[in-house]
């Protein structure tokens, strides 16, 4: 375990025994602030540099907006927690080839935007602001927490033709438990953290679990939906995808991959092929995708093993 995480775990768990409120507030400060700002990765730089950048603000914080293309036939890209818009770099050229204009932003506290934190409500507001600027979206492509924001925005009036939801969060109520589990924090801290999240991050919302449940009232969202989720995702469990499938039924296509986890799924060519095909009004590959991804992962592992063997032989 990371020494810093171990120190946090020991300190907050001990504090919770004598001052549970103090431990909960300390956990909340950690919970609401991204621990890191994602940098533009080497493979993302070319696409990132091609974007036209603009500025918006939310809660007084400057937000960087990225656009590829002239803005006609816009597709909204929504990133997740501790991520940034450039993570969709592999999608951009494929969307441009369809004549679409990808539009994205770095949420407050993320990427190149200002501020220290953001919530699902900020993402929803920014999605609406971009619709005011560019018009109705041909589609929304979202990842992780961005998926929850997409459902919330669509239920609130955002207009889009299709939705691609990748490794998505179907309900935010799991987040305090997930945070505490990863940090090794006890149930006392988790309960305090949950109360603070509901009161401080979402004042006036009421029943937070219900309000941010993407599976509630599916009849309010009538567009076709493609959900892609890896069965081994250790950040957002595949059960979130299955909840959505159970709620939306035949209007939602679910594709479960293997071997991609929570982040690599955004760069896997077979996943992008299926998403782009869906946006072009085709149908996803379903079971074939599972087999293709498994084959590709096995091939990559075999190559790595072969390289390691060759290196060892050469060194002998």
Question: Quick summary of this structure?
Answer:
This protein is α/β, with parallel strands linked by helices and 316 residues long. The chain has helices spanning 3-18, 20-32, 45-50, 92-97, 120-134, 145-155, 175-183, 187-201, 208-211, 239-248, 269-279, 287-315; strands spanning 52-58, 61-67, 74-78, 101-105, 139-143, 163-166, 225-230, 252-257. It has a domain at 33-171 and 212-288: Rossmann fold (3-Layer(aba) Sandwich), CATH 3.40.50.1820.
What would your notes on this structure say?
This protein is globular. It is built from 12 helices and 8 strands. Helix content is 46%, strand content 14%. Helix 1 runs antiparallel to helix 2 and helix 7 packs across helix 8. With 316 residues, the chain is α/β, with parallel strands linked by helices. The chain has helices at residues 3-18, 20-32, 45-50, 92-97, 120-134, 145-155, 175-183, 187-201, 208-211, 239-248, 269-279, 287-315, and strands spanning 52-58, 61-67, 74-78, 101-105, 139-143, 163-166, 225-230, 252-257. Residues 282-294 have low confidence and may be disordered. It has an 8-stranded mixed beta sheet, sandwiched between helices. The protein has a domain at 33-171 and 212-288: 3-Layer(aba) Sandwich (Rossmann fold). The longest helix is centred in the C-terminal third of the chain and has 29 residues, at 287-315.
């Amino acid at each position: 375990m990371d020494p810093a995480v171990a120190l946090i775990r020991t300190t907050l768990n001990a504090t919770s025994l004598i001052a549970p409120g103090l431990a909960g507030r300390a956990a909340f400060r950690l919970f609401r602030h991204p621990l890191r700002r994602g940098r533009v990765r080497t493979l993302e730089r070319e696409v990132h540099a091609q974007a036209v950048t603009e500025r918006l603000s939310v809660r007084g914080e400057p937000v960087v907006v990225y656009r590829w293309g002239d803005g006609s036939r816009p597709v909204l890209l929504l990133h997740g927690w501790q991520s940034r818009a450039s993570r969709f770099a592999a999608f951009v050229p494929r969307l441009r080839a369809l004549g679409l204009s990808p539009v994205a932003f770095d949420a407050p506290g993320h990427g190149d935007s200002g501020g220290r934190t953001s919530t699902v409500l900020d993402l929803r507001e920014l999605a609406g602001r971009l619709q005011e600027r560019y018009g109705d979206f041909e589609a929304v492509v979202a990842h992780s927490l961005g998926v929850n924001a997409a459902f919330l925005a669509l239920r609130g009036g955002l207009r889009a033709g299709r939705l691609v939801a990748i490794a998505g969060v179907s309900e935010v109520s799991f987040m305090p438990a997930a945070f505490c589990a990863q940090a090794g924090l006890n149930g006392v801290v988790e309960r305090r953290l949950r109360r603070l999240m509901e009161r401080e991050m979402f004042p006036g919302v009421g029943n937070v679990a219900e309000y941010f449940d993407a599976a509630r009232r599916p009849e309010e969202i009538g567009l076709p939906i493609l959900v892609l989720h890896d069965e081994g995702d250790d950040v957002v469990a595949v059960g979130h995808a299955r909840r959505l499938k159970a709620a939306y039924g035949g209007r939602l296509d679910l594709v479960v991959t293997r071997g991609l986890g929570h982040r690599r799924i955004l760069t896997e060519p077979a996943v992008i092929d299926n998403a782009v095909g869906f946006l072009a009004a085709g149908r996803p590959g379903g079971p074939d995708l599972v087999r293709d991804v498994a084959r590709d992962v096995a091939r990559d592992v075999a190559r790595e093993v072969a390289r390691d063997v060759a290196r060892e032989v050469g060194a002998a």
